[in-house]
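This section describes the prediction task in plain terms. A model, or a person checking by hand, is given the sequence of a single protein chain and must write out its three-dimensional structure as a string of tokens. No templates, partner chains or ligands are provided. The sample shown here is typical of the held-out split.
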Amino acid sequence: MEGWVPVCATGELLPGEMRQVWDGGTPIVVVNLDGALYALEDRCSHEDYELSTGRVDPAEGSIECIVHGARFDVRDGRALCAPAYTPVTKFPVRVEDGRIWTRDDR
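The expected answer:
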């Protein structure tokens, strides 16, 4: 599992919850959206603020930045509303041996 960063045990990240991890100098937020796991760079593309301090909307599948209300689709990182127009980077997620893993694969 070279290059992969452990996030937590699968039972520690329930639907609607998120967890921040670091891959070197890259902050990553991992979101459990109704059992599907997604990872985005933990930086709003508009304000360069941590998305993990915001909230997840499970119905919309989005995460909202608390600074100016920019929202991003957790499935692909695209910006859903102003003031953000640029997507955030999406990262791979895998589950192995009862743990959630991600990595910065850029």
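For orientation: The chain has a mean pLDDT of 96.
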